[in-house]
Fold:
Amino acid sequence: MITPEQILNAKILILEDDKASRLLLKSILQTSGFQNIHGLPNATRISNVYRSFKPDLLVLDLNMPRISGFDVMARLRRDYPDDYLPIVIISADSEDSIHLRALSAGAKDFLNKPYDRAKVIMRCRNIIETNLLHNAVKAQNVNLAQIIHERTAELHQSRLDVIRRLGYAAEYRDTDTGDHIVRMSRYCERLARALGMNEEECELILATSPLHDVGKIAIPDSILLKPGALTPEEIVVMHTHAEIGAEILSGGTSPFLKMAETVALTHHERWDGKGYPHGLKGEEIPLVGRICAISDIFDALTSERPYKKAWTFDASVKELKRMRGYHFDPKVLDAFINVIPDIKAISRDVNMPPHRPSRRQRVSLADSR
Ligand SMILES: [Fe+2]
Ligand SMILES: [Fe+2]
Structure:
């Protein structure tokens, strides 16, 4: 709703080369209560004046030397394609063709010379009101877009939080903290970027990789928390976590759940085909599975677990390099090694103090869970 005060306070720009006509218009408007009127004798500075003054009404003469009213309208339409352009034309010409041409060029109404005081006021008032309404709707739309943007971001963040907590639930049982999935998922994202994956995929891998071990929910404590090496039977049970995790996450149609299922199912596959659960080989293993494998094992190496102490960063990098080409995809591993400074920074962000591994602790990764 536009108030009478808003209309009288509106900014009016009169672009008219004829001084007498300009002053007459100004006087008519002023005596009707309009207070904010600016006169301009020619259009040379119109773009600048329009930008800085932002008129709620532009009273525009069509017939001016050098830059005509038509030129002004063309320029304003080009420079302000989303504006209402509150233009009222001054015309001594009452020919329909001129009026039509002016309307199609962007004019909203006419003031015919000689001026009829009542018509001048009513027409100016109408255009001002429409322009103020247009601006109010525009501002409201910007506001709504901002609110939608904020709500969408909140929704996205809360979804990530819930997922991460689901990952924590599985993780909490064998590491006491959720640090592993925070680091591991950030390694995955950094590695995905290094491999040139697009923004959406990078965000998806960041969001889904925390769920890689969600199937551990189904593994008994006696196996999951066993401090020593697992027996062959226990290893078989332990390995079921990949398929159980995929089963928990299966059946979704969103890219998110599909990737989460793939991550859970394939993060223990090996490049040489000796991984589990399906013994996939080389590029049969989805790229996200190959990325998660490296990030997961690297973080497992640098972290303390019930069955091992934490390795130093350098010893862990060395171990990864040793597994290049048989455990890990060589290209993905090389990309990981190339971003080691970033990985180190992420690790420092959420890391515990590392220990040098003893010879006994250098367990084979076949025992890595
Ligand atoms: Fe796992
Ligand atoms: Fe893990």
Observations:
- Residues 180, 184, 212-213, 296 surround fe (ii) ion (ligand 2) (CB under 6 Å).
